[in-house]
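Ticket opened by: R.M.
Priority: normal
Category: complex prediction / small molecule

The reporter submitted a protein together with S-adenosyl-L-homocysteine and asked that the result be attached to this ticket for the collaborator who will pick it up next week. Submitted input follows.
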Amino acid sequence: MIDIKSMPYEQLKEYCISLGQKGFRADQLYDWMHVKLAESFDSMTNLPAAFRESLSQLCDYTCLTMEKRQISAIDGTQKYLFSLQDGQMIESVLMPYHHGNSVCISSQAGCRMGCRFCASTIGGLVRNLTPGEMLDQIYAITRITGQRVSNVVVMGTGEPLDNYENLLIFIKMLTDEHGLHISQRNLTVSTCGLAEKILALAEHRFQITLALSLHAATDEKRKQIMPVANKYSIDTLMDAVSEYHEKTGRRITFEYSLIAGVNDTDEDARLLTALAKKTGAHVNLIPVNPVTETGFLPPNKQEADVFKLKLEKNHINVTIRRSMGRDIDGACGQLRRKETANPARRSI
Ligand code: SAH
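Result attached by the on-call engineer:
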């Protein structure tokens, strides 16, 4: 079966022509899938019935089923648990901001990177998501809420650069003028730091924001919390992100989850400052979200503010990320983790 929702515009055009259709049918079909966000071929009323019939025989039309939705009473964050056609569960988050709606999507079912503070990796990697399944998360949330999504962050479950080919197709399709046409500048891809893939991505010169999950300023510390640090040193990563910045002109973001007693000392602040200076990176501090299985705890608000101030004094551009949806399993992978660990809850 053909995964038609993962087909970029040009490819869809060739495919429709190969089925004996005129080119404009591909435009109509692409528009139904990626602008009107149709849920099935049946609803594509301006396509000939015979064409719809052959499509439904030849192609899979992926769609997500919403299994659960939690809405934060604190800040309006909406956390979604979706099931895919093979029954795998993924989660996505809608964060309403003054400047527009931001959606955080998953790129894999599970993750094999093994970061010690992260709930998404506990059950390992199940499979990559297709480009269509990444888009579907945005489409489903748009349909359910009836609101436009203006920003997308690939910061849910999974390591996007470990699903590199599908990520590239997703970026092209999300930002394509024939689809939702979200500006590349409004898309952020977050990685734990697969250096050669960062370099490969730089070659495309997309205007997307690259966020590097740094979380420690020395290799020794990073290795304690992120197994991927055994493969790529901080030096290698700094070279990779500097090249990304040079080739794309886009400023890098460092994500730094503050973990009490682990990476929040004076020395950590000093070394992080040096890395941010060297690369011109913006630093995003995220007090770690406690995950039952990990035992890591965040510093208190005052300690986090002090850490931030140390960077600011050295003219580093730094923010503390507002912890969104604290009352609804806000941290990465926690909702999916609960559902997977305790499938009986699904009947609720
Ligand atoms: N694999 C990618 C993207 C998914 S995780 C990456 O590593 O960047 C998105 C961000 O959330 C990463 O910075 C990740 O390290 C961070 N994160 C994961 N678990 C967290 C937790 N419990 N508390 C705070 N941040 C967490």
